[in-house]
Amino acid sequence: MQGTLDTLLSADGTVDPAALSLRDTTFVVLDLETTGGAPDGGGITEIGAVKVRAGERLGEFGTLVNPGERLPPFITVLTGITEAMLAPAPPIEQVLPTLLEFLRGAVLVAHNAPYDVGFLKAACARHGYAWPQLRVVDTAALARRALTRDEVPNRKLGTLAQFFGATVQPTHRALDDAKATVDVLHGLIERLGSFKVYSLGDAIEFGKAVTPAQRRKRHLADDLPHAPGVYVFRAADDRPLYVGTSVDIAKRVRSYFTASEKRARMSEMINAATRVEAVECAHSLEAEVRELRLIAAHAPPYNRRSKYPERVVWLKLTAEAYPRLSVVRQLAEDDAAYLGPFSSRRTAELAAAAVYDAVPLRQCTHKLSIKTKTPACALAELGKCPAPCEHHITPDQYAVSAADPFRTATYGDPEPLVEALLTRIESLSQRQRYEEAAVVRSRLVALLRAIVRMQKLRAVTSIAELVAARRNDEYGWEIIVVRHGRLAAAATSPPRLHPRPTLDLAMATAETVLPGPGPVPAATAEETERILAWLDRPDTRLVETSGDWVSPARGAARFTTLLTRAEAAGSRRESPVRSSVTDRSDDARSLRL
């Protein structure tokens, strides 16, 4: 059976048949006889079709077809069709125009429909006819779902025709079999009522491989709005099980109860769900943000992403005489420099390793005194640390050579760190130490990705208020008010009305946002990035802003191309010995801008 519900309009181009009741739907019940081979554009020997609506027969179509090939003897025995009968019959290319016209505006019904549809599609393709995007109902599939083994031993057409008391029994002739299928279809439609299946779209979905739980819980999608927003599946104790978002809540939730939903964890979730709650939103961006906040607040067990935003970590350059890097979970209002957020401690440590490769920052965790010396560690003996613990370097010298390059990179130019890492990669590559070069490259990617991301976030979170809008041809103007990177208000101005009153109301009623410390002072990084993606769209217009939305002239953004190429080089699978830096396109020289 055809697996998608493609849009099909009726003859006047106004009605979607999926929304029609089965009683009001026009069906063409079709059957083919063939030579028994594979569908290759030929092989059809007879076509029979009956057009019905509301139990009334509107027309019939029947013809023999010259297949243009020898007829196997067993087909003659089975159907009674002989080569002498087919010799004067028209070929399929002459039959197709009339048949396609007969099918226009109707829903195709067949028993074991993939077989018949496959032959017709192949014939259309072979002879240059466009196959219409017909909806297809398979009576065999419906019978498998609607009838039990106690009622019928199998789902053959003859068995079903006898069960439903068909007026015409199948004879392996196309028109007789089509007429028998009409009676089977009507019998199945009566049976579908007990499953609360009344529309064409529901009948098509019912015939697919839908689990009993999906079929039993389909009512949860009833009465949901056709609007953008967030939906929440809730358990019997009202716990949120799963949170999602869609531009059409009703349509999206309904898809969980169809054959297209095959995820095992979603099947488990549906079994536990007792109701679905909908939160309508002004537009898709507000829906995305509300989804993030709900997931963060409730951590639904069946959501995998965005569940624990509080678990992010930061790299902190401590504020002391000889600063060091520390992985922390919270931002403080101090003079320390921060880089992040990182999704895991491992990624933060990878970026820290890049810093250690680039500048002589100490790696010990002691709090050093400018008056009292501390014994040096092995790194000082290896020449990898300037030994501030033994006062071999003054605090000012240490700041210039080690701390300042990192501090500057967090808000300005990261070039000193990047150039040092590229030089190291090139040196290792020239000495054929490819694995070590690949390790340094992965550290460069982790560091540069974090710097580019944070500077992009800081550019918008530093603005106290930003108002933007974009035109939506269906809903009017979508409007957002952003304060310190947090969505403070969202609205939609109706079509054909000036958006200013709606915009003024949104600004007046927007959430008051008090910023905290760091580059994401009022929202999660993921929320601000969703807002940035919306703002970056070419059809978005900035309406008002309380400050300049700018990035540093020599900031990390200019290394975006380098980052993309380094990530691509690292993702390719190459020799573990030579790694990914052996090709000139991947070596350190080519990674430079």
N-C termini distance: 54 Å
Biggest sheet strand line-up: 3-2-1-4-5
Q: Write down the Rg.
A: 34 Å
**Mind summarizing the main beta sheet?**
5 strands, mixed
* Helical run tally: 21
Give the overall shape, derived from the CA principal axes: elongated
Helix content: 25-40%
Question: What oligomeric state do these chains adopt?
Answer: single chain
Mean pLDDT: 88
Number of strands: 15
Low-confidence stretches: 1-15, 573-589
Strand-residue proportion? 15-25%
Summing up helix and strand content along with how strands pair, one would put the structural category as: alpha+beta
Region (Disordered): 566-593
Biased composition (Basic and acidic residues): 570-593
Domain GIY-YIG: 226-304
InterPro entries: DnaQ, GIY-YIG_endonuc, GIY-YIG_endonuc_sf, GIY-YIG_UvrC_Cho, Ribonucl_H, RNaseH-like_sf, RNaseH_sf, UvrABC_protein_C
